[in-house]
Design goal:
- The chain has helices spanning about 55-65, 75-95, 115-120, 140-155, 165-180, 230-235, 265-275, 285-290, 300-310, 360-365, and strands spanning about 15-20, 25-30, 35-40, 100-105, 135, 210-215, 255, 280, 290-295, 325-330.
- The chain has about 375 residues and is an alpha/beta fold.
- α4 (about 140-155) packs antiparallel against α6 (about 230-235) and α5 (about 165-180) runs parallel beside α6.
């Protein structure tokens, strides 16, 4: 549960939670100029991989109520997930009470988890947050995902206090997921051309991807307390479950990433940047840490040389690619914001390295 950078080594750091007794490691760093920053460590976006206390407490409560069997763990999961979010919200509110200048959400080394990566961004702002579009591989796994959504929506249809508006929205959502499931086979196409040529990326074209709604379900956003029924709202817009926690923090925010930040942690970082206005700091995430070099009429060795030159990698770094491929897989880049233009062959690349930490912290961490 340690921070991804040695914040504890900085003078003026006060640790408030160790990440064991509570779900999140957290503390306040006072920089030499007096600036106070709150830091919260989100090690995974999956509550069962953090502190076991929330799961154990939920289990004890359910057993005490006599409302579950040993095999019935679904209520425990739901309670643990709610406790995970509530703990994060409580920490953010505590930062507000302490009047820190900004909050750093540390997701370095966070390899992902589940949809809480999308939900959690809503705790960092009082503004409306709209989730990104979601596409899935047109494969059996997509059908399984669609079946799960359909089951949840149909269960919500049984709610007795559903308004006409809610019933209409549920019917539209069910029809949308049924159509997506039926359209999986039609999305199959021949992608062998990717090994011999380069074409503009068209997700709706030949991509073997299928529209799956949004990262938050069928709806990208719903106003708080929609339909007057939490079960219905959550079946259409999963993030409705955290409506009561929105804006726990509503000030400046940073997201600290590194090459181990992946999957839903990257989704969290992107949503924090786009919807919350947070600055991404640290190093490139996992998806951005592997670069590709496109070549046209160049021999493979030239492509490898160009890749290594562009990304500052040593000559011994392994680079592998299919003999028939025009794309070579490159080494991990060094932490740099610019790269010399390779001349061995024509390449296309885009630097996406995150900017540095806030100056007071950067200066102190430099020597730690």
């Amino acid at each position: 549960m340690a921070f991804s950078l040695p914040f504890e080594s900085l003078p003026g750091t006060m640790l408030e939670a160790d990440g064991l007794a509570r779900a999140f490691r957290a503390g306040v760093v006072t920089a030499p100029d007096g600036t106070r920053l709150g830091i919260v460590r989100i090690a995974r976006f999956r509550e069962q991989d953090s502190s076991p206390n929330s799961c154990m407490e939920a289990w004890r409560e359910r057993q005490a109520d006599g409302a579950m069997s040993e095999a019935d763990v679904a209520p425990v999961r739901s309670a643990a997930s709610a406790a995970w979010m509530q703990t994060l919200a409580a920490q953010l509110r505590h930062f507000r009470e302490q009047k820190v200048a900004a909050v750093i959400a540390d997701v370095g080394g966070n390899s992902g988890g589940n949809d809480t990566g999308d939900w959690a961004a809503r705790l960092f702002t009082a503004n409306d947050v709209h989730s990104a579009r979601l596409m899935m591989s047109a494969a059996p796994l997509a059908a399984q995902y669609f079946d799960e959504q359909l089951a949840q929506l149909r269960a919500a249809q049984k709610e007795k206090d559903a308004t006409p508006e809610a019933r209409a929205m549920l019917e539209q959502s069910i029809a949308a997921f049924e159509a997506r499931k039926a359209g999986i086979a039609a999305r199959h196409c021949d992608l062998s051309w990717v090994w011999t040529e380069q074409r503009p990326w068209q997700p709706q074209g030949c991509s073997r991807l299928i529209d799956a709604g949004y990262a938050s379900g069928q709806a990208a956003y719903l106003p708080p307390k929609s339909f007057g029924n939490q079960t219905i709202a959550s079946s259409i817009y999963w993030a409705a479950g955290v409506d009561g926690l929105r804006g726990a923090w509503n000030g400046p925010a940073y997201v600290l990433t590194d090459s181990g930040t992946a999957s839903s942690a990257e989704m969290f970082a992107a949503l924090m940047h786009d919807a919350v206005g947070a600055r991404t700091v640290g190093r490139a995430t996992a998806a951005a840490s592997w670069r590709t070099c496109r070549r046209w009429n160049c021999p493979a060795p030239a492509c490898a040389t160009a890749c290594r030159t562009a990304y500052g990698c040593g000559p011994t770094t392994a680079t592998k690619w299919p003999a028939s491929s025009r794309t070579c897989r490159c080494c991990r880049p060094k932490a740099r914001t610019t790269a010399p233009a390779p001349t061995a062959c024509s390449t296309r690349w885009r630097p996406t390295y995150a900017p540095a930490l806030p100056p007071p912290l950067r200066q102190n961490l430099k020597g730690s």
